[in-house]
Structures are given as structure tokens and as C-alpha cells.
Specification:
The protein is an alpha/beta fold. The chain is built from eleven helices and 15 strands. The radius of gyration is 20 Å and the shape is globular. The strands form four sheets. It has an eight-stranded parallel beta barrel, surrounded by six helices. α7 packs across α8. Bound molecules: ligand FNR. The site of ligand FNR has 20 residues, from β4 and α10. It comes from Mycena venus. GO terms for molecular function: FMN binding; NADP binding; NADPH dehydrogenase activity. Keywords: Flavoprotein, FMN, NADP, Oxidoreductase. Its cofactor is FMN.
């Protein structure tokens, strides 16, 4: 039969992804002082043997204090390269492309890993304290506005702080080059540092990096992307955005004031990225920057399947030339195929569905009536 869209190869800057099903980045809270461990080798290696087009490794911080939790991944020092290299080489031996998401958690840093919190006596606070390997006194953000009362109180970043973070992103990119990653994803979503800069909810600066001016809010994240691109010229650079803050009310008031981050500004930002040549794929996620966010649409009180596809669809419509990823509650292969067929996205990223069903790609191929190659060792299971 005809090759389903999901299983058509995709070439980006000379890298050929064998299909369009990507593993979405997922924090594992299993690093040792920022170093990947055996857990990562097994977890990521498992995906690499099971037919996915690409694996994106979890949010990996470019400085120690940019980690979300003390157990998070890092790439701020050379010793963190070797365990990643082992994973990349295994993945390549399996014919699977692999990338990494570079991140800084901003005001959401120094918080507990989900299952560590349950063991602490700190009540409702999410702050990982100094005696718990946290750094609550070294949390910084565009503005001194905490994410919620349960989170650390961030300091407002100086221009010097910004330069230091920018340089750390560049250093991490150079380590990625040496490790051999196929692509890098710049994490500008989920209320972490770069999203904090672009959103008027979290950025109330009065200098050239913030406030009501969209241009000002985009300045720092865009500059970091430009610096990253200088070091990562011929390779795929992805950007994950949150296409909405999901705060109540509209994105823009009647007089044109931006009230929250949303799809309109996302489209403008991507336009800017495209004109500067600093993005090859826009990964359209949402939320994470407002503690009272109201995600929609809902079905029976639950977030609906494909709830973020509206954003990848709008992005593709605005910028037909850009490669767009859809993510979020994608589980049904027939529905996933329809997103691509209908031009709402070019790739799909799956997170939880692949945790529940690591063989999803092989199952999807069977459902859609095509063949896909996983590891030789698993071949007989799918004949
Ligand atoms: C995530 N998510 C996530 N997103 C991201 O950009 N960087 C990350 O490191 C993580 N970490 C993470 C850990 C775990 C355990 C989960 C379940 C999720 C979000 C994830 O990539 C994805 O966007 C959402 O989970 C929505 O997709 P699914 O799960 O509905 O397929």
C-alpha cells in the first residue's frame, strides 16, 4: 500500500529521520550531579531499538542552577559528555537519530523531583532546600516574580547574568557537537527561563529585554538562538515553544497591549527566527508559565487528545515553509496520521504514550499497514 505520512522519511539539514515519530523529551530525575546514568542508557536505548524516527533527550541544563531539580541532567562541564556519548553511539548503532533539549529552568529551578517531594517534611512547598542539594538562593529570572508561593523567589537577572547564561548555552552546544548529537532542541516552553522572557506574565522588566514590548521580550532568547546557530550551522536546530500561557482572558487587549503569551506572538517570534535562519523545526507545546493555567479543550473534564494540535496547525498555516511538530495526548496512530495528512504538523512527538507502550511505532505500522524496522533482535515479534 501507500506509505503512511508518519513513516515517510524527513530530511532536515542533511540529517535523515527515518520516520516522523519522535520521542518527546522527558525528565527522568535520575542524573548524578548532572551526569547521565545507567538509567538513561537503558531508558533511551530502549527507545532507540524500537523504530522511532528520533529520540530527544530530556531538558538538560547549561548551568548547575538552571536545573529544575537536583536530579536533573546537565551539560555544563566536560565530564558530563562521556555518559551521553555512550547513549548517542548506541542509538546510532541502532540507526536512530538522537538529539538533546538544552534548557535553563529560570524561576522554576531548585524544586523537588516528583517522587522526592513525597519523602520530605516540607508540606506544600516545592522548594528543594540547600540541605537537599537545592539552591533556592541562587534562582533568577527576567523579573523577581515567583511562579507561585510554593516556588523559590527569583532574583531579577542583570545583563551580566544574561551574558553568562548565553555563553553557557554556547558552551553546551559545542559539547553536543563533540558528543555527536544529530540535533539540538532549544527549550523555550513550559515556563522555564526562555519562556519567562517572552511572556508578559513573567517579564515585567523596564529595560530593553522586557515589558510590554514584544520586541524587547524576544531580544534575549533570540540572541541566544543566534549564538547557538553560529556554533551549530549545518545541523538541525529545533525550538520547543509554549504557544499559550493558558491564562484567563485574551492574548491581547483591545488597545493592543499583550496580556499573556499566545499563538499570535508565537507566530511573530517564529517569523523572526525564520528571517534570522535560527530554527529548523518548531515543536508546539503549551503552558507551564502560570500556576492557575486553564488548559483546554476538555472532554468530560479531561484534557482532550491532540489538545495542542491547534497550535501546530496555526503555525503551519502562518509559516508553510517551516517544519512543525505536534505534541500532547497523541495516542491513536490513525489520528496521528490524520494530523500529518491534513497538514496540521510534519512530525508527532509522543511522551506518555511511549512510556505506556514503548513498541508504539511497530504497533502503529501494523495498524497503518506498513513495515518498519526495529532491532533485529525484536524482528520475530512483528512478523
Ligand atoms: C515531560 N515533558 C517534558 N517536556 C519538555 O519539553 N522537556 C522535558 O524534559 C519534559 N519532561 C517530561 C517528563 C515526563 C515524565 C513527562 C510525562 C513529560 C512533557 C512532554 O515532553 C510532552 O510534551 C507532554 O507530556 C505531552 O505529551 P504526551 O505525554 O501527552 O504524549
Amino acid at each position: 500500500g501507500k506509505q503512511p505520512e508518519l513513516f515517510k522519511p524527513l530530511e532536515i539539514k542533511g540529517v535523515t529521520f527515518k520516520n516522523r515519530i519522535f520521542v518527546s523529551p522527558m525528565c527522568q530525575y535520575s542524573s548524578s550531579n548532572g551526569h547521565a546514568t545507567d538509567w538513561h542508557f537503558v531508558h533511551i536505548g530502549g527507545f532507540a531499538t524500537r523504530g522511532v524516527g528520533a529520540v530527544c533527550m530530556e531538558a538538560t541544563s547549561v548551568v548547575p542552577e538552571g536545573r529544575i531539580s537536583p536530579e536533573d541532567a546537565g551539560l555544563w562541564q566536560d565530564s558530563q559528555m562521556a555518559p551521553l556519548k555512550r547513549i548517542v553511539e548506541f542509538s546510532h548503532a541502532q540507526g536512530t537519530k538522537i538529539g538533546i533539549q538544552l534548557c535553563h529552568a529560570g524561576r522554576k529551578a531548585s524544586t523537588y523531583a516528583p517522587w522526592i517531594k513525597e519523602k520530605t517534611g516540607h508540606g506544600t512547598s516545592w522548594v528543594a532546600q540547600e540541605d537537599e542539594n537545592g539552591w533556592p538562593n541562587n534562582v533568577y529570572a527576567p523579573s523577581a516574580i515567583p511562579w507561585s508561593e510554593k516556588y523559590p523567589n527569583p532574583k531579577e537577572m542583570t545583563e551580566q547574568d544574561m551574558q553568562y547564561v548565553e555563553d553557557a548555552f554556547v558552551a553546551a552546544v559545542n559539547r553536543c557537537k563533540e558528543i555527536g548529537f544529530d540535533f539540538i532542541e532549544f527549550h523555550a516552553a513550559h515556563g522555564y527561563l526562555m519562556h519567562e522572557f517572552v511572556s508578559p506574565i513573567s517579564n515585567t522588566r523596564t529595560d530593553q529585554y522586557g515589558g510590554s514590548s514584544l520586541e524587547n521580550r524576544l531580544r534575549f532568547p533570540t540572541r541566544v538562538l543566534q549564538r547557538m546557530r553560529e556554533e551549530w550551522k549545518d545541523k538541525p536546530l529545533f525550538v520547543r515553544i509554549s504557544a499559550s500561557d493558558w491564562a484567563e482572558g485574551p492574548e491581547k487587549s483591545e488597545d493592543g497591549t499583550w496580556l499573556q503569551w499566545g499563538i499570535e506572538q508565537s507566530i511573530l517570534w517564529v517569523q523572526k527566527m525564520l528571517s534570522l535562519g535560527v530554527v529548523d523545526l518548531v515543536d508546539c507545546s503549551s503552558g507551564g508559565n502560570w500556576f492557575k493555567q486553564k488548559i483546554g479543550p476538555l472532554i468530560d473534564g479531561k484534557i482532550a487528545p491532540g489538545y495542542q494540535v491547534q497550535f501546530s496547525e496555526a503555525m503551519k498555516k502562518a509559516h508553510p515553509s517551516v517544519i512543525v511538530g505536534a505534541v500532547g495526548m497523541i495516542s491513536d496512530p490513525v489520528v496521528a496520521e490524520s494530523y500529518l495528512k491534513d497538514g496540521k504538523a510534519d512530525v508527532v512527538s509522543l511522551a506518555r504514550e511511549l512510556l505506556r507502550n514503548p513498541h508504539w511505532v511497530l504497533m502503529a505500522a501494523k495498524t497503518l499497514g506498513c513495515e518498519v524496522k526495529a532491532a533485529n533482535q525484536y524482528d520475530r515479534a512483528w512478523r
